[in-house]
Amino acid sequence: DIQMTQSPSSLSASVGDRVTITCQASQDISNYLNWYQQKPGKAPKLLIYDASNLETGVPSRFSGSGSGTDFTFTISSLHPEDIATYYCQQTTFGPGTKVDIK
Amino acid sequence: EVQLVQSGAEVKKPGESLKISCKGSGYSFTSYWIGWVRQMPGKGLEWMGIIYPGDSDTRYSPSFQGQVTISADKSISTAYLQWSSLKASDTAMYYCARRDTVVKNDAFDIWGQGTMVTVSS
Lengths: 102, 121
What we know:
heterodimer; A: 6-stranded mixed sheet; 4-stranded antiparallel sheet; globular; B: mainly beta; 7-stranded mixed sheet; 11 strands
């Protein structure tokens, strides 16, 4: 099985800050990498698919990049409503990164 | 509107059986895989398995193979997740999700609202 790791496991940032999360796969997965947002008490929501494609309706402050084994997810300017846990996924999900406001 | 609607919360005793459901609407149910994802209390997401309702082709994560059964009834656009003998460790939120294999390279693009399963004596 392909294993996914994420870092950091949690972070605190100020409104307006640029936030970056990394995800690493245990083997080459090309661009088969998705990113999800999960707010407390809610179902996950797809944000990015194919490593860098923004899902319809998702704000453009969210972006993704990478290929092979190393991937990055970025929020260009943190909004209060972005407080959530973010997961990368190939088939297996990464362990998640909890983002909150400093 | 494309949506998946899951059955309601369940409270069961260890050793009991259970079948929860996920009904799709607003799209061709037989043309997309449906996956099941477990989230134990305070923990992350775990990929359990997927089913293609068109022909009932089913794949399981090794961690869940033999522990649960995934099935579907395409005549009523519904997928199922079932247990024959529940354990306390099955206590979790269970999500179903539609898997887009055509445009979004296997991403789960539509999610159900989740079904909370509590197993306690």
